Amino acid sequence: MRRKIKTVAIALPIIVLLLLSYELLWGKLFAYSPVKVGFIKNELPNIVVFTEKGSTFSNYEAIDTLIPAIEKYHALGFKNKPEIIIFSDEASYHQRSISGARFIVYPNGCLLVAPWAINEANEGKISLAIYLRHELSHTLLYQHMSKLAAYYFYPRWLLEGIAVSSSNQMGTSWYPSKEETYEYIRQGNYLSPTYMNTSKEDEARLNVKYKTTFMYSEAACIVEYLMDVYGRDKFEQYMKQLLVSVNHDKTFKAVYGIDFEKCLQNFRQHVNGDI
């Protein structure tokens, strides 16, 4: 019996280590792995790109030049060069990614790019520059917050609203423009931003062409409303304080002197032309 217990005690850590190694090299923890097997590393002044063998993408400089404008918009600098991983094989991407979306940013700031995103950009369906600016906005903010904040505390609507606004994404691809979003809201299509990524989002019935992109554009409209009405300085203060704060509503009121829900009411009145 003691021999069996001893054998298990020795084998268990080895099994855990092997499983962890597998997940880091070929599984869902790939974004955290210091070794990228099957990928070619390309380091530029502002970014590090890992390209899976077989990928035809090579315009790394175009990505590198996006960084200064992203930092300027957020009034923040990247703490580390963002790591961007470009896949050439769909099966490989699905095996290593926690999402089936075109792009996914992990809380450590690592950005994974699906092969079909590159194909869609080549076909003119999406702007790779716009989508990368969106995702690199997440990367930048993630570098300045804790993993808990990234997962639980930083408001999802604000994270997406900043990304859409900073990348000028409204009115491109499947995202309604600011004017179209305002018109949707005037027609009664409105989802409180606090419902994003909750069950209430799933329950919402919106008469819009694309529900998710509408919500993202709505969030960007709220971000731009805050900057237009209260000034960019206050917005930057609000955005940055939330990087370390766990209480959104308290932080919002401390910065803006108004309850968040009241501000949302004012935003809807502004959209409807009432104020």
Describe this structure in words.
There is one protein chain. By secondary structure, this protein is α/β, with parallel strands linked by helices. It has 2 domains: 110 residues, Zincin-like; 122 residues, no CATH class. 56% of the residues lie in helices and 7% in strands. It has a 5-stranded mixed β-sheet. α6 crosses α8 and α8 packs across α11. The mean pLDDT is 94.
What is the topology?
Blueprint: H1 2-26, E1 39-43, E2 48-52, H2 60-64, H3 67-74, E3 83-86, H4 90-96, E4 103-105, E5 111-113, H5 115-122, H6 128-143, H7 147-153, H8 156-166, H9 178-186, H10 199-203, H11 211-230, H12 232-241, H13 248-256, H14 260-272
Instruction: Report strand %.
Output: 5-15%
Q: What's the shape?
A: globular
- What value does the average pLDDT take? 94
Provide a count of the helices.
14
Strand order of the largest sheet: 1-2-3-5-4
Helix content: 55-70%
Query: How many domain units?
Result: 2
Biggest sheet record: 5 strands, mixed
- Sheet/helix structural class: alpha/beta
Q: Could you tell me the number of beta strands?
A: 5
Gap between N and C termini, in Å?
78 Å
Poorly predicted residue ranges? none
